[in-house]
Amino acid sequence: MSTPSPIRIAAVLSAEHRGRLMSHAREVNFAEGARLFDEGRPARSFWIVRSGTVTLEIPLPGHHRSAAVESLGPGELVGWSWLFPPYVWQLSAEAMTPVRAYEFDGETVRLLMDADPAFGSAVGHWVGRVLAVRLHQTRTRLLDLYAPRTGATR
After folding, report:
1. Which of 68, 70, 81, 89 could in theory staple to 56 by disulfide, Cβ–Cβ 3.0 to 4.6 A?
2. DSSP-derived 3-state class of residue 145
3. What Pfam family does this protein match (any one) (predicted)?
4. What's the CA gap between 70 and 6, in Å, rounded?
5. Which domains are seen in the chain, by residue range?
6. Residue pLDDT, tens place only, 104-147
C-alpha cells in the first residue's frame, strides 16, 4: 500500500486563488519548542510552513507528554479546525525546529470563501485533500501497529 504524498498548496490551488490567499498571509517565526496551538482551544489561525518542522500531537490522558501523530514540513498546511464550527483545535502542535511560516486569520479567509464561491470551493477542496491524506496516513500507521501479523509463530 503506497502512502500519498503531502498535499502542497501549489498542487491544488490555481495561481489566482493562491495569490488571493497569500495576499492575506503574515510571515511569522516560531522558536524550537514553541506551541502553535493546543487541543480544545479556539482555532483562529492556520499556517503554511516555509521552513522547519511542526509536530501534530494528541494529548494522552494521565500522561505528562503527548503522542506525536504527524510531522509537517515546508509547503504543508498546519491547522484545519479554523474552517469547521465550533472552530476548536482537535489536536495540538509544536515547533520541533525553528519554524518560519505564513500565518492566516481563519475568520478573514472564511469571509473571503463566502464572498467568492469559486475561491471558497478551491480552498475547501485543498483542506479536504489534506485531511484525506492525513486520515490515510493515520490509518496506515494504525494498521502497522495493530494489524495481526501473518506468518507469526507461537
Report:
1. 70
2. helix
3. cNMP_binding
4. 11
5. 9-144 (2.60.120.10)
6. 999 999 999 999 999 999 999 999 999 888 888 777 766 776 77
